[in-house]
Amino acid sequence: MRSPFLSLCKTPSRWPTSWRLMVLLGVSFVLVCVFEYVRIPAALLLGPMITAILLATSGAGMTLPKPLFLFAQGILGMMIANSLPLTVFAKISLEWPLFLIGTVSTILASSLLGWLLSRTGLLPGTTAIWGSSPGAASAMTIMSESYGADMRLVAFMQYLRVACCAVAATIVATLFHVDDVSAVPTD
Fold first, then answer.
1. What is 17-60 written as a DSSP string?
2. Residues 41, 105: one domain?
3. Residues 27-40: what's their mean pLDDT?
4. Which of 72, 106, 160, 176 has the fewest CB atoms within 10 Å, i.e. the most exposed one?
5. Which residues have CB under 8 Å from 161's CB, separation 6+?
6. DSSP symbol at 65
7. What is the pTM of this model?
């Protein structure tokens, strides 16, 4: 005779929400600690993101009520804005052609990639376009649902890009021996 506990452990989709939340928090905490120890940038983003992806793909995904989800996105946006020093705008104004070329080339390259993915049939049309669009991953994910794209696949594509950027930044910082860079006043 099989134990009901063992059958629940084998099927994460049948876990109670409280178990899912405990696993999400616990595994996220462990991954963040490991990533911080290894000095991977964006450990606080990557740990929970990887945990949520693992839970969702195993059938134990959770959905938040829309107001709570939007509140969390707003808090995240304010945290990002708070970390942006005002001196960055002066630097951008001095180097505006370089920033303009970089921005336009990124938009053109990602648009071409999205178009190619949709034309080849590797991904459904709108999903390919939204998934390869540069910019705020959370905003692209939210907007994609309104245009009929598979929101989960768009989120996977967007956050995979974020993870790749974090890994690339770690590799570049390691190769060029960048240690604890601090801002230098530009008086």
1. HHHHHHHHHHHHHHHHHHHHHHT-TTHHHHHHHHHHHHHHHTT-
2. no
3. 92
4. 176
5. 137
6. -
7. 0.57
